[in-house]
Give the backbone structure.
Amino acid sequence: MRSFEYYTPTKVIFGKDTHLKTGALLKEKNYKKVLIHYGGNSAVSSGLLDEIKSSLEDAGVSYITLGGVVPNPRLSKVREGIELCRKENVDFLLAVGGGSVIDSCKAIGYGVANPWTDVWNFFLKTETPKACLPIGTVLTIAASGSEMSNSCVITNEDGWLKRGSVKSDLCRPVFAILNPRLTYTLPQYQTESGCVDILMHTMERYFVNIETMEITDSISEALMQTVIYNARILMKDPGNYNARAEVMWAGSLSHNGLTGCGTAGGDWACHQLEHELGGLYDVAHGAGLAALWGSWARYVYKENPERFAQFATNLFDVPWSADIEKTALAGIEAMEEFFRSVEMPTNLRELGLNLSDEQIHELAFRCSFEDTRTIGVFKQLNMKDMEKIYLAAR
Amino acid sequence: MRSFEYYTPTKVIFGKDTHLKTGALLKEKNYKKVLIHYGGNSAVSSGLLDEIKSSLEDAGVSYITLGGVVPNPRLSKVREGIELCRKENVDFLLAVGGGSVIDSCKAIGYGVANPWTDVWNFFLKTETPKACLPIGTVLTIAASGSEMSNSCVITNEDGWLKRGSVKSDLCRPVFAILNPRLTYTLPQYQTESGCVDILMHTMERYFVNIETMEITDSISEALMQTVIYNARILMKDPGNYNARAEVMWAGSLSHNGLTGCGTAGGDWACHQLEHELGGLYDVAHGAGLAALWGSWARYVYKENPERFAQFATNLFDVPWSADIEKTALAGIEAMEEFFRSVEMPTNLRELGLNLSDEQIHELAFRCSFEDTRTIGVFKQLNMKDMEKIYLAAR
C-alpha cells in the first residue's frame, strides 16, 4: 500500500443561488481588483454575468472583465489576460464558466505571479511555478474538476500543442461556487461529455497495477456508479436538479485527489492520447476520451485482468467467473455500452474524425513527444503502442 | 436536496515513517516556538516522542513539551497549556496522540488566541472564537477524526461536564501526519472502540430525515463497510498494516465533512447521550457509543424506517422485504452483532456500568441541560425520551 498526500484547501459552496454570494465572499478577503474571466455568449445571454457583476458591485468589490475563452483554451488568451492583470493590478481571478475558463485563469495566475519566466515553460515542464494569483470559480459545467484540482491544460496555437501544467497546489482555487442550476442550459452533448470526463478522472486513478486501498476503490466505484446512473437520467430529463447536483459534486470529488489516495498518481495514458486529438482537431474533451477508452482498455487489460474484472463486477454487476479475462472484457463492453446509451462516441469515426494512416501516425508521434517518452503506468506505452491504440480506435 | 459547504484545508501526509517529516514541515512554515502536547507514557515508552523531538531538533525548530492529557481531556490541563503557551510565546501546537490530545490542543489554541474571554465559554457556546493558534497532529489512535475536524470536546472537572465546542474552521489542523504503524501498540479495546467512533461519525450524519445525496450515501456506506471489514481483521491480526491504514484513513474521512455533504448537519443524539456517560463515568468514547446506539436506533427508527432499511440492505446485505420495519430492525441487529464480534458493548452493563433509576434520571437531566433542550434531528428527543433510551440501554 502506497503512501500519499492529500490536500484540498478549496472551500466549496454548493446549492441553489449560491453564485449570488460571490461578492460577499470576495469582500471578506479584501481583494483590491478582481478579473472576471469567462467564455462565450452563454454567460452573457443567460444573465449569469450580470448577476455576478451585481453581486460584486453590491459588495463594493472592484472588477474588470475578460471574455472569449474557447474550449481547449488558448495560450494567446492567457497572454492577453496576463498583460491585462499587470496593467490593472488585478489581485484575484474569478472564473465564471467551466474547465476551460478555470484553466485559463490558472495559467494567467501563474503568468502574473511568476514574471521571471514565460508561462508556457510551466506546460513544457521545464520550469516550476513559485506562486499563483488566488482564484475563485463559479462553475457552469460539471466536467473538468478544475474547480478543486492542482492542474490545468492549455493549447498553444503555435503548433497546436495541448499540454498539461506542472501539478502544483498553488493553483488550487480558494473557493468553488457550485450551483447545479447553472448547468441546466448546457447542450446534451456537453453534459454527457462532462460525465465521461468525470468518469475518466476516476478511472485514470483507478486503473493502476499496485495494491490499492479498499476505501479508495470503493469510494471511486460509488462515485462512478453515481455518475453513470445520473448521466442516464439527464438524457431524458436535463432539468433534473438532483441529477445535476449528483454529477456536479462527483465532478469535483473525482479530481480533487480523493479518488487517488494510495494509487501513486494514476495512469493518465487516455488523457495524454486525447490531448493530441484536442490540440489538433478541437474535439470535446470528454467525447474524445470516450472515443479512445475502449481501445486503450482492450490494449492494456491483460497486464492485470483482475483489476478490470473487479471494475466489471463492482460497477456493472457482471457475474464473477473463473475466466477472469472474459469478466474483464465484459466490463469494458459494459462501459462502452454506457457511452453509447448517452450518445457518446466509442471510436474516432463516431467522434467525427476520419483519419488517414499518416494522421494516426502524426498523433502517436506528437503524443510520444517525437518518440522520446512513454505514457501510462498500468502498461507503459511507447510510440508504437500509442499508434496501435489510435488505429484500434479509428 | 440541501445546500452545503465543504472545507477541508488540512494537509494529510499518510504512510509509513511519515512522522519523521514533522520537523521539516514545521520549518517550512517558520514557526518560532512549538508546544509538543501529548498524553501518557505510551508516547514516551514507545520512543515516538523522542523521534518527534529529534525531527524538530534536526530541523532547528524550537519547542517545549506538555504531557499528561487523559482520555476525556480535562479543562484544567487546557488552562495549564494556555498559561504555558503565553509565558513561552508558543506560536504552534503539535498534538502527538489521539483525539484527546488533539482536542486539548484545539482548546489551548482557542484560549491563547482569544484572551478577551474565558475558553470554557466556547464550550458553553455563549461565545464564538475569533482565532486559534495553528495546530498540527501526529496521530496515534484512529478514532476521533479530530485531525481534520472543526470541533473538539473537553471535560470540565467542575461538575464533570463533557461539552463540545462551537464548530469552527479555525481549529482545523494545518497538517495531519497519519502513520498507521503508530497505532500497532494500542490495546484491542481501544482499537475497536476507535472503529465504533469512526462508524458513529458516519452514522450521525447518515441518519437524517431529509432527502440526501446518493453520492454522499454511497461514500458513507463504502466507508462503513471498510471499517467493519477491517475492524474484524484487527481482532485477529492487530499488526496488519493494511487494515490499520484503511481504518485510519476512514477515521479522517468520516469526520472531515465529506460524509455530511447534503445531510444538513446530521443527528448527533448518540454523541450527546454518550457525552454524559463520558463526563460522569469516564468510559471510552467509542465503547460508550456502542452501548447506546442500538437503544437509540430502536427508539427512533419508526420516524423513517426506509432509511434504516437502506442501511440494512446496503451495509449488511439484509434482503429487502415488503415489511420495511422488519428490514430496518434486521439492520440494527446486524450492527449490534458486529459490535459484539469486536467485543464492544451493546448496553450499559456490558460497558461496566450498573446504574440505578436515579443515576439514569441524572444522565437524562444533564443531557437535556436540566430539561431545557432537545437533541437529535432524526427524531427530536426531550428529557423523557433521553431517559427512555438510557433505560433501554441499561
Summary: Chain B has a mean pLDDT of 96. The longest helix of chain B spans residues 214-236.
